[in-house]
Amino acid sequence: MRCPFCGYLETQVKDSRPAEDSAAIRRRRSCPSCGARFTSYERVQLRELMVRKSNGEVEVFARDKLYKSMFVALKKRPIDDDKVERTVNSIIRQLELLGENEIPTDLIGKKTMDALYSMDRVAYVRYASVYQDFRDTGDFTDFIRELQSRLKEDMKAISPEIVLPAKKPKE
Ligand SMILES: [Zn+2]
Q1: Ligand 1 centroid vs 40 CA: distance in angstroms?
Q2: pLDDT tens digits for range 47-96
């Protein structure tokens, strides 16, 4: 692999180990020419994904973009990086398994929202505010209200007896 700093081709692998729950191999590399050290990842790619943007443009799917959007939403939240990497892998696997040649950006946004919803609610709201392009505080309050009712529904699904105590039959 080419050195990203000086362009030298024969970089050396110093260490190689499984990462992201063994979905990836992480390699520490060093460049004998300039002495730089960097990391590369090897991941399974089931198929080449293309993304169709809302303006109709089509481009090659970029894992980094997806990762970065989640990373920004999760900034200073108590979620470790490995979990983010694994979640990104899982979203990509879902997209690959659709078998479509082009994935609309909307769908990637929706999958990301779903993942963040179950991971961290603050990050979920942050991501939504960017992705759904909130214009003012009214958009925020509407969204939070919807979120609250969704959370209430989820709580009922998890533990109906807590939210809706069953009436005791009269003796
Ligand atoms: Zn180098």
Answers
A1: 14
A2: 889 999 989 999 999 999 999 999 999 999 999 988 999 999 999 999 99
User: Is residue 100 domain-shared with residue 139, that is, in the same domain?
Assistant: yes
CA 26–ligand 1 middle distance (angstroms): 19
Asked if the model's pLDDT at residue 118 lies above 80, the reply is yes
pLDDT tens digits, one per residue of 49-59:
999 998 999 99
Same-domain check for residues 38 and 111: no
Tell me, yes or no, whether 50 lies in a domain.
yes
Helix and strand element counts for the chain (H, E): 6, 6
Q: How many domains does the chain have?
A: 2
One domain for residues 69 and 142: yes
Q: How far apart are CA 159 and CA 150, in angstroms?
A: 14
Helix axes 105-119, 81-97, angle to 10 degrees: 140
23 and 74 together in one domain: no
Distance from Cα 14 to the centre of ligand 1, integer Å: 14
The rounded Å distance from CA 38 to ligand 1 centre is 10
Do 73 and 117 meet the contact criterion of CB atoms below 8 Å apart?
Answer: no
What's the one-letter identity of residue 135? R
Residues 72, 18 share a domain: no
> What is the enclosing helix (H) or strand (E) of 41?
strand 37-43
